[in-house]
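Severity: low
Component: inverse-folding endpoint
Summary: output formatting inconsistent between runs
Steps to reproduce: submit the following structure tokens with default settings.
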């Protein structure tokens, strides 16, 4: 039960309450079970207070302080110094906060487990590391709230608004977010295992590196949603609207990703299965993006091969930067397992995409294996480079029988290479690419 003296003080108003807190800094307020419905508690200092089971329905706690660090003094080696200790937040567990207002309030580390926060306003509130486990937050407005590392396990957030909220690294295991609005919310590295996100609005939300395993996202709005490297093992995405989704590097195998709608509302409905297919089809259907993609991969991409030691990679990086100045798209790949099937398939694929190839034969390492994978069977211009007076590796001479392997260009250091790159490398390679292209078109 609440301390009646404490209840009497807070009922006198915020000014009287804050003055009493200043005069009694060691006292932990006990307002447990207190009837404070419709109370005006704006700017009140409620840090460390026990408000468990209190009735704060329709109370106004905007800008209230429910957490603070305390400044203390420590002594070490005879020297005293100040330190900030981590004080616990207020205890609001099992309290009734329905229709309450927490706008811009500091609720860091506050215990709201089991609390009822239906229709609560907490716009811009600081709920960092707060305990909201099993809290009821139906229809709550948490727009722009800071919820970093918050505990929302099994919380009920149906119809809640979390637009632009930061839930990074939060634990939302088995949370219910059905029809919640998370537009532009940040959920990087959050845990949403088994969460219910059915029909949630996830437009432009960021789920990068997030655990969505076993989550249900059926019929969710996922326009421009970021799922990069998300764990989607056994997750359900059926009938989601996924126009503009970014689904690179997904981990795991979803349980259901069928009937994905890849067009926007108001447009003729086109569906596809598989998130990666939907991402590709988005580019295909957008003619301008497709033209950009084709142009980048067939007329502007340049594959750069060489050794990736610290000394040699500096040369490759210099080539890459200079190619960008001429509006090319440089492709570099560090082939660590040159004997694998994946290696062969990857290097051939990249060579197929390239306008031409620049191969630095200085200390070649894996370069011979890379060239062996595509030179004999793919007519793409190859411009070999070599620093200094050394000879190219012995087997390279066999490639000069192919018309698309060009004369060796020697250089003496990065400055000399960059000074001559356009005239001795780019221009000849472009000319050769055009020659080969014309030959393919005419069949000669």
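Observed output (run 2 of 3):
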């Amino acid at each position: 039960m609440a301390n009646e003296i404490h209840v009497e003080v807070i009922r006198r108003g915020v000014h009287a309450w804050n003055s009493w807190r200043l005069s009694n800094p060691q006292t932990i307020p006990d307002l447990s079970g207190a009837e404070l419905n419709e109370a005006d508690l704006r700017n009140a200092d409620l840090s460390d207070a026990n408000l468990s089971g209190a009735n704060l329905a329709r109370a106004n706690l905007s800008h209230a302080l429910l957490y603070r660090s305390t400044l203390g003094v420590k002594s070490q080696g005879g020297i005293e110094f100040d330190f900030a200790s981590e004080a616990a937040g207020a205890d609001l567990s099992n309290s009734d906060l329905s229709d309450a207002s927490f706008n811009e309030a500091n609720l860091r580390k506050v215990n709201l487990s089991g609390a009822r926060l239906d229709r609560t306003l907490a716009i811009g509130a600081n709920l960092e590391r707060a305990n909201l486990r099993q809290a009821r937050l139906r229809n709550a407005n948490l727009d722009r709230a800071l919820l970093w590392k918050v505990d929302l396990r099994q919380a009920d957030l149906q119809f809640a608004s979390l637009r632009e909220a930061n839930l990074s690294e939060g634990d939302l295991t088995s949370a219910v977010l059905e029809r919640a609005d998370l537009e532009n919310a940040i959920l990087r590295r959050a845990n949403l295992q088994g969460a219910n996100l059915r029909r949630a609005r996830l437009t432009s939300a960021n789920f990068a590196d997030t655990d969505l395993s076993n989550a249900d996202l059926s019929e969710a709005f996922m326009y421009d949603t970021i799922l990069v490297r998300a764990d989607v093992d056994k997750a359900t995405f059926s009938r989601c609207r996924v126009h503009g989704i970014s689904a690179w590097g997904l981990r795991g195998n979803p349980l259901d990703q069928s009937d994905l709608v890849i067009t926007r509302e108001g447009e003729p409905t086109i569906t596809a299965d598989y998130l990666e297919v939907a991402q590709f089809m988005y580019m295909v259907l957008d003619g301008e993006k497709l033209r950009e993609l084709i142009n980048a991969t067939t007329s502007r991409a340049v594959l750069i091969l060489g050794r990736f030691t610290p000394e040699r990679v500096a040369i490759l990086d210099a080539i890459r930067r200079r190619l960008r100045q001429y509006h090319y798209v440089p492709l570099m790949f560090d082939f660590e397992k040159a004997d694998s099937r994946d290696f062969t398939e990857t290097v051939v694929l990249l060579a197929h995409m390239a306008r031409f190839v620049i191969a630095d034969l200085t200390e070649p390492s894996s370069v011979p294996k890379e060239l062996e994978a595509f030179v004999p069977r793919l007519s793409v211009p190859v411009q070999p480079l070599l620093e200094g007076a050394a000879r190219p590796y012995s087997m390279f001479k066999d490639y000069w029988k192919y018309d698309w392997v060009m004369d060796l260009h020697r250089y003496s250091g990065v400055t000399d290479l960059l000074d001559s790159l356009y005239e001795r490398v780019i221009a000849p390679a472009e000319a050769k690419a055009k020659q080969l292209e014309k030959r393919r078109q005419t069949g000669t």
